[in-house]
Structure formats: structure tokens, C-alpha cells
Amino acid sequence: MSYASIIKEIGRGADGSRDMTQEDAKYLYGAMLDGGVPDLEMGAILIALRMKAESIDEMIGFLAAANERVNALQSPCDGIRPIVIPTYNGARKSANLTPLLAILLQRFGVPVVVHGLLEGFGRVTSGHVFRELGVMPAASHTQAQQALDEHKLAFVPLPVIARLGVRNSAHSLVKMLDPFKGEGVIIAAATHPPYLDTMREVLGSQGAHGLLLRATEGEPYANPKRRPRIEHLHDGVAEVLFEAEHDSLKMLPHLPEEPDAAATACWIRKVLDGQLPLPQPIANQLAACLLAAGYAADLNEAKAIVAVETGGHVAASA
């Protein structure tokens, strides 16, 4: 492949550039991940992609190349799809409740892999909250598999599962990675609607299983104050499980007063112990996860299971 010719095609700016085919995009991104692109050409390619923005076909090719290089994990359960939760933003204004969703799924015996960054750059990451809850990051692929086998929950830093950064295209790609090679249910979340559209199309083209929703501060848990639209991606279709809530709030759910990791972990423990109610939007997301994982036969059963297992400690919906 001639990197010079690719740069010539994609490097003409937002209006004059041409998109790569899926095949070329996959080949190029594979070479980039494998260290086969010289530094000068690599810089030019990254700048060109940033200027023109990636097409759907390019993202499909990039994701295919990335997934081929993911260190695969094996689900410890037969008949239940594992849940994959990408966590790459962290929280700044409100509590990061991604760990709550993961631990709730773990309590149902659903295997969960949370992958993301350790450093928050001023934000409270899921890793920070997990540490307060006694869940340590896996230092190796072997440790990740062991945690999954023994505890049904593994928090895996990105370098353990894939050689990817989080700049340019990779920031979107990491949120669609499946370390279970197509067997996982990916919680795909984004803040901006165009990214949700891209995720829907890219994951749909791969026949992936997932749940698509608007992120909360970039994190993949349902906004506890007002439920976002939640779609179930499966068999090439996007099925709406819950519509977004738009009505004015009748009451605010009881949430952590501070977004720091210690306060968030303390609040999560109280919810898990039944001392505080589980916010209804997260209960809905949990039900959606149980359905997508195959734990429940339909959404009504999933919602009933959540209601029973939480002992009715669910906050009233807005």
C-alpha cells in the first residue's frame, strides 16, 4: 500500500478529500496499529483524518482491524452473553455510576468486562470508583480472564486488551471493541447524536449485539435524573426498548452530593445494600442488559426480575 497516495486522497481537507474503501481502511489501520507506518506518514494520516472526519466505511474498516488485534476473552457462562462496558471519559460534574451498573449485572451472574483508562486527567474515572469498592484493575490478560472466571467482573485497562490510544478515530473505536469476538453485548454510548448514528450503523454492519444510548458526561450509564432512549442492536436491527424521557422532573433522585470517588463508592454501597433506591433510569438500563444478554426472554420479564431482585428499592420515575 502506498501511504503517499492515501495521504493525497484523504488529505485535501474537509471538502476536497476522498474516503477510503472499507478494505483500504482496514489495511491501513492494521498497519498503523502494528507499527508499520513511518512516523512522518503517520502524522500526516492522523491530521488528514482529523480534518476530513471518518466516513462510515472507514470506521467499519478501522473497527474490523482493531477487533482482529484485541486480546480475546472467554465468557465463563454458556447461554448468557457477556456485557462489555467501555469507560473512557470519567465524570466531572456528577457521580460516575458506571461501576454501579457493572456490579448490579455481576450480582445477577452476568459476566461483565469494563475496559477503559486509569488516568482521568481531572475527571473521576470508573477505575477510581472501582478501587474504592475493592475492584482492582487487571494487570494482564491472564488476570482479566481469571477475574472474569472467578468473579464474573473484570476491570481491564485498555493496554491489556488492545494496542490503541484514544486520539482521533480510536476515541470512537474503543467504545465499540468487543473482546469476546462478537459474542459480547457492547454498551455503546455517545454524547452527540451524530456519533450515536455512526455507532448504530457501524455496529449494525458488523452484526454486533449492543445497547445504544446517550452517554452521561461521556460515560455509558443512563442519566439517573432523566432516562435516555435505549436501543437494542441485534440481528442487524435497532429495536427501541425505552424511549427518552422529556417531561419535567417531579422529584430528584437521591444522588451522591459530591462526584469524588469515595463519595460515589459510599453511595453505590448503600444502593447495593438496599438503603437507598436505585434510580429508575438505571433500573431500566439494567433490564435492557438482562434482555440483551439472554438472561430474560423478553423486556417485561427483565423488568420484573429487576423489580424483584432490587426488593422494590427503585426510585419513582420522573
Features:
single chain; 318 residues; alpha/beta; Transferase, Pyrimidine Nucleoside Phosphorylase, Chain A, domain 3; Pyrimidine Nucleoside Phosphorylase, Chain A, domain 2; 2 domains; seven-stranded mixed beta sheet
Describe this entry's structure for a reader.
There is one protein chain. The chain has 318 residues and is an alpha/beta fold. The protein has two domains: 3-68, Up-down Bundle (Transferase, Pyrimidine Nucleoside Phosphorylase, Chain A, domain 3); 83-309, Nucleoside phosphorylase/phosphoribosyltransferase catalytic domain (Pyrimidine Nucleoside Phosphorylase, Chain A, domain 2, 3-Layer(aba) Sandwich), CATH 3.40.1030. It has 14 helices and seven strands. The protein has helices at residues 3-10, 13-16, 22-33, 39-52, 56-68, 98-107, 126-132, 141-151, 158-161, 169-173, 193-205, 261-272, 280-293, 299-309, and strands at 83-87, 112-116, 153-157, 185-190, 209-214, 230-234, 237-242. The chain has a seven-stranded mixed β-sheet, sandwiched between helices. α5 packs across α11 and α13 (280-293) crosses α14. The longest helix has 14 residues, at 39-52. It starts with a helix and ends in a 9-residue tail after the last helix. The mean pLDDT is 92.
Count the beta strands: 7
CATH superfamily of the largest domain: Nucleoside phosphorylase/phosphoribosyltransferase catalytic domain
Q: What would the CATH topology of the largest domain be?
A: Pyrimidine Nucleoside Phosphorylase, Chain A, domain 2
Biggest pleated sheet: 7 strands, mixed
The poorly predicted ranges are none
User: From the 3D coordinates, which CATH architecture of the largest domain would you assign?
Assistant: 3-Layer(aba) Sandwich
Radius of gyration: 20 Å
- CATH C-level class of the largest domain is Alpha Beta
Number of domains: 2
Strand content: 5-15%
Mean pLDDT: 92
Proportion of residues in helical segments: 40-55%
Q: Given the structure, what is the number of helices? A: 14
Our measurement of the CA-to-CA distance between the termini, rounded to an integer number of angstroms, reads 55 Å
N-to-C SSE series? Answer: HHHHHEHEHHEHHEHEEEHHH
Major beta sheet, strand line-up: 3-2-1-4-5-6-7
